[in-house]
Amino acid sequence: MAEWRGTDAVGHGHSWGDERLSLLSSVGAALTDREVMQHALDQAVCELGGLAGLVHWSCGPAGSRTLRLVLASGLPLAALGGWEEIRQDDTPLAPARAVRDGRFVWLPAASGEAARPGDPPGTGPGGTAPAASGCLPGAATVASVPLTGPDGPVGALSVLTGPREPAPEQAAFLEAVARWAERRLARSGVGVGDCDEHPWWQQRPGGSVVQQSLDAVKAGSWEWCIHTGEMRWDRAGLTLLGLPGGYRRRIESWLGLVHPEDMPRVMAATEKSLRERSGYEAEYRVRRPDGTTGWVQSRAHLELDENGEPVRMLGKVWDTTESRMARESVGQALRYMSDAFFAVNRDWRITFLNVEAERLVGPAGEVLGRPLWEGPAGTVPELEDRCRRAAADGRPTGFDIQWPTDDRWYHIRLVPVPDGLTAYLTDVTERRTRAARRAEAERAGADQAARINELGNALADTVTTQDVIQVVAAHVLPPFGASGLLVLCLEGGRLNVVGSVGYPGAFLTKVDGVPAFGGYRLLNEVLSSRRPRFISSAEEYEQLFPDLTGNPALARKNAWAVLPLIASGNAIGTCAVSFDRPRRLSADERTLLSALSGMVAQALARARLYDTEHARAQALQRGLLPRVLPCPAALTPAVRYLPASSGTDIGGDWYDVIPLSAERVALVIGDVMGHGLAEAATMGRLRTAVHTLANLELPPEEVLAHLNEVVCDLGDDSFATCLYAVYDPITGYCSLARAGHPPPLIVRPDGNVECLEPTPDPPLGAGEPPFATVDLRLPDDSLLVMYTDGLVESAARDIDAGIAECTQVLTSEYGRLLTCPPPRPRISGRRAGGRHGPDHDRLDRLCDLLVGAMLPTRRLTADDTALLIARLHGLASGNTAGWPLPADPVAAGLARTHVREQLEAWGLGELIKTTELLASELVANVIRHARGPTRLRLIRGTSLICEVSDASATTPRIRRAAETDEGGRGLQLVSALSQRWGTRYTAEGKCIWTEQPIAWTGAPP
Asked: What is the pTM for the complete model shown?
């Protein structure tokens, strides 16, 4: 270790010894001798640049020649294990050599000869390495000086240093410190060689020597010469035993002090030590000469001669009266404490058990010394394994067990001790019972919360009243084991059944519509008081309500929970949960049902509001759509409309079939984008506009152009799609125009399905005319399938995939069966079109097939759907006849002739005169007011149609002629004689037509 030294003015090193001694000399009398010695030791270590400082003192009886370590500085005691006690005759150690020789000594820290100049540090003579002492470095050395008393050296002051020998001035400083310490101890009134009573190293800081003496530990030393029987005690030992100073120093004096009851044990320990040459230890009572008795603990070791025979025993003794009394108090406390306690040794034999443990393990007289596992403990599952594991691990552990003798639960805590294992058993039966009840209550609360949460989530998804009834039946009845549910709502002062589960129809008929506040007392009381009633049996029911006797048998129920339904502070009805068997509900179940009834009431109020609004919306929707479709001879229609299954808003899908002149028919289907009353109103406007434009006999592209103007006038956020088609049964042509609408599907008579070009013109309101028209010649009995996007498009399916899927349905085996036309004759003038024929039934089933395949029942749809299917029927060529007429007055006569001859050929003689008059008036009107060429045509269909066409674009109109006017009554006559009449524009000009019903007098020929 490096030495710290100062430097004088000329650079020569010098020691600080004088200064250090000067500082030590200034220490006052306020410090204790121990504190003074500590300061001296610290200064010595600093001066020598050492590792630590030691003070050894010669203690024990005279001649014991033992040096005890009484003070240390710089290192913990764990590093000085080999320096605690040194025999004075152990001269290889520096403190012992210094005491023996009475001079300064410098030796290696390990046992060996004195170090000589030139020897390697840490080695003995000849370079041999001595055994290391303690945990000190191998190169450590010790510098020691004796501490001298009146009769010679009594101790040593030592400094542990490095391998370098101390300088002469350092050795001189160490000796000077020792002399100073001797003088300081002599002035304090404590003899330098006195260690019999209250030695200086046991003094506490900050107190007087007298007070510290009173607080000193009661301990002494003794020496017994085995051969001579002489036994010596130091002053502390004499005080502890109560012996006077002039006692007889014989072993018999000590034996006379030992309590007779403890004598066998003391002598056995002594004989064992002498026989086995081992240490001696015993605790016993002493009877002092003054008559007092106390407990002492004695411990000693033997000194052997060269033959290994014991010659002397050196020991210590200390007072254990207080600790013994404390142990006995603890034993008494353990003996009678409320918890069971027992201890076992390393062989698992019972060594102690208290009164409570005797009740569990057995009487002490029977089980002490026996293995623990032979008693009830051996039957406790896993107890032995856990005890052995705790003893092996050396760590306390605890767990709960059920003891077999009383079937009660105990918490056992196992604590390993040096000689075995201790166990504490605390009765926790009541605590476990309370915990189980608390856990059960928590589980019940959690179950209730889960049920409420589950019901709340399910009710949140309900829409209609029936949805609420189904959810309540599924989430409330099973957990309670109930079998019946009856929900009644207050409407117009009466309770009406809105849903039930598990009740016979006869009982429902009886309670449906009862007065809300009279007529059925159980329901009336619950509704008026707003408090639930719980009835546990049919007998209790009839006892409480004798006027309702017989109702339990009619309802086939034996217990009830009748709950009021309160929503937003208003009583809206009652809910009855019933049971097949008598049942008394617990308080928790009643509370839960009452809580659930509030949730049901809120959901029911919301659902009934939805039902009301939805019913109104559906009524408005039905009012805006055609109630009954016309059935012209040119086609057989079938239609389906499905509102959206989610939400109360109505949609804007619409359809229509409009008969035109000359047996032609207009088919239209459209969709106003969006949902709500505004969209429904827009749909109604468009449908009315289509009827008006169709009656004007405009072509499809012009109809869409006018509809586009109507939609644009509604605002920039209004849009609609539309498909308008006109079918002419005479020519077989179908003219179609589309504005943003899905393409129609055409099913030909052979079953092949054709889809028009999928790209339409922009929707109405988003584009500008013109709109393209497609003219198709369709064979007789073809199907025209028109639909809105709700049928083929959804969030999970794009429109192209939907059209392809719809085509697959039409071409399936069942689809082909329904699209195939039924065997029947082509239409003629003797036969009306057939709404009620077999073809209409097939088309109805085809609509159901498409809707069922494209829109499954359980799938919620966000858009409404319209589907229109029409079977096209051509008109045979024999049912039409036409003739050109000259542009002069004779044309009227020729027209009458043609009409007479053709009607006679068709067998319609009853219509000849009327038709002649109509044709004559129309031809005369053309000759007078228009220009040629003129043409006459007759069409026999469901009615007789007479047409006169010309090249003029002037539209005829009825004039209100006065009584004196000679003309102006021709069109009035035409209007009076025909069922209906009108004018349509053609590519060459216009055509004026009339229509007369054909009256059949018998079966068609």
From this structure: 0.53
